[in-house]
Structure prediction request, 446 residues.
Amino acid sequence: MIFLNRNKSELDKITAEQILPYRNIVPFIDLVPTFVLFIARLHEQVKINQPSHLLFLSREGKILKQFFDIYAEINESNLEVKTHYFQVSRRSTWLMSLPGIEREFFSEYFKQYFKSSLTDFIKSLTLDHYSHEFASYLNIGEEDLTVTYPNLYNENAFNDLIESPIFREVFFREQEKCSNNFGHYLNSVVGQVIPKTLSVVDVGWKGSIQDNIFKWLNRIGQPRVINGYYLGLNHYGFQHPDNNKKSLVFSCLGGKKTQGFEIFNECKALYEIFLPAGHGAALAYNVDVNKNEVNIMYDNYSDAKIIEQKILPHSYNFTELFENLIKLFKSVTYTDQELYRLSIFHHKRVVFNPLNFEMQWLDSVHHSENFGVFGYSLLNQQKNLHNIWQRIIFTFNFVRLKSNRQLGYWPFLTLYNKAFYGLHIIYKWFRLFQAKLPRHDQWLSK
Prediction:
């Protein structure tokens, strides 16, 4: 077992000393070594591939860019790459990527969001400001658009919408506008000539935004190679020889899990929560021809208060600790494998041994979804809502159905809060056992 019962290295001692002042006041501070591992590996990839521009995709990319710039400056890398915070989202790029309006072009979307409403579908295309016109043409009320179907793709309501003349007219008009304006935005970032190879960075988990940009470039007749670098990948997404994706911390692509996958993958929502941007998701781009500027339109920033009061102060602590660690690590000789062991040691503390104050803090935040489905989900379910009989019923259904779907964003914590007492401990040790199984890892095999 490479991350338990090991001798402490100089990295361990430095990290433990630096984390200690934050341990009981900054929730989940032990995530920082994982970000250090990711940025160190990203830096290595940039040195090897030497891209001219590195686009950090919003919104998690804002802090990831800060991390990368800090790492490069402290290590005096002298890289020639220009780093950019690139404000995009699935909603701002999906419409422009679609090759047409036929049913089959939406099939990939419905593989994930099969239980959906027309409103969710229209909103994902950023065409929701036409909802009244769509409903009027279909001779239904706008409230009928919000009805959720078990499988919308197979419903007559969906066919009626996409086959209607008004939807077709709006779709192609808005797609052309979206395409032109996004092109101006991309040019404003990388220059008037788009590089032959684009390099993007994101947290994960499928690379949908990269896929959308790749499809868009091909649709407008300007094909490019795109190299994507991700903290974690759980799905291939759109596969093409020129649409490359590389996971730098964990992945399970092709059924091949990297070392420690079960630990790094346990609660991916935590990565997103602690990489806030301080603004809503990008929706569209407006070009001011007179000023030669591109203005970004944002989604409703409804969780601004929570982020500014509950999350941003702690993300500042994350950045502070990250910078301190990089400065101190500079004087230490270490291998990538040692850095990996450090990160997984601290990460398992986060996901399998959360502190009481951390779980209480979770009660005040939520994980938001703004594509396919819209709304908020709590990571922590109040355990006092579940008596012994409710726990027995939950455990029985879980074992009978053998489905992880009901375990939510954080399976360990869900079992802790809802299942029969002790099941979460069994789950924890099972995951730790899986995580130590021998696997091929491109980094650890070096």
User: Anything to note?
Assistant: The longest helix spans residues 165-190.
